[in-house]
Amino acid sequence: MSALWDVSDPPPRADPTPRADLPPRADLSPRPDSPPRAEAGAREAEDARLIEESLSTPERFAALYDRYSPEIHRYVAGRLGTQAADDLTAEIFLAAFHGRAGFDGRRGIVRGWLYGIATHQVAQHRKSESRLLRTLQRAPLAGEAESGHEDLVAGRVVAASMRGRLAAALAAIPDADRDVLVLVALAGLGYEEIAQALDIPAGTVGSRLNRARKKLRAALGGVNPMFGDADG
């Protein structure tokens, strides 16, 4: 399998074929995953409008599939592998489509809502995530299978010699803390978005992230797992 934990890689299915049970694709120009704040605000408003419009015109929801399926696929692939992501991405959006009437824009944004659904799906496949981490612990330094795991979590910490220790540390982190860590490192979500996705207070996001960072930092001998620098 390819290097799923390298966030610079393009998603394996850049132009996914729509499922028969999803609404038809809408024409929506591609946009960057991390737009400036002003553009992000406009997109958030447009996303909420698409949800509302899709209640009476279901095909409008396909615009959200086009917009967010590549990054949701990358997030799931980074945690469970490409094959699982190929199957689960469509299921995530199908669940979102069926549950769209329950979206409440007063409680957060569509992107955070989608990552919440995705993280819930990942939670149903914890054994697959554990197998992936065990594979990374055993992988040769040259990396034949799922190499690049450290690139996702550690950002600029790319030394292949750390992969086994990092995978072991990730496997030892409680599920709830690991969810927060990868939503920051892979999805690039902020505290408020993660709080929405996981339905927890923003303060809890901070405490879980701090615990996860400390464990990874210790496993890497003092290297900051999020920024690639050394404590001191």
Structural account:
It is built from ten helices and no strands. It has helices at 37-54, 62-80, 82-98, 110-123, 126-138, 149-154, 163-172, 175-185, 191-198, 202-219. The N and C termini lie far apart (37 Å). The longest helix has 19 residues, at 62-80. It is globular and about 55 Å long. The chain is mostly helical and 232 residues long. Helices cover 58% and strands 0% of the residues. The protein has two domains: 37-123, RNA polymerase sigma factor, region 2, helix turn helix motif (Rna Polymerase Sigma Factor, Chain: A); 126-219, Arc Repressor Mutant, subunit A.
Question: How is the secondary structure organized here?
Answer:
Elements: H1 37-54, H2 62-80, H3 82-98, H4 110-123, H5 126-138, H6 149-154, H7 163-172, H8 175-185, H9 191-198, H10 202-219
Helix content: 55-70%
Q: In percent terms, what proportion of residues is strand?
A: under 5%
Terminal Cα separation, in Å? 37 Å
- Structural class call reads mainly alpha
Largest sheet features: none
Helix-strand string: HHHHHHHHHH
CATH class of the largest domain: Mainly Alpha
Radius of gyration: 18 Å
Characteristic terms for this protein:
232 residues; mainly alpha; Rna Polymerase Sigma Factor, Chain: A; Arc Repressor Mutant, subunit A; 2 domains; 10 helices; globular; disordered C terminus
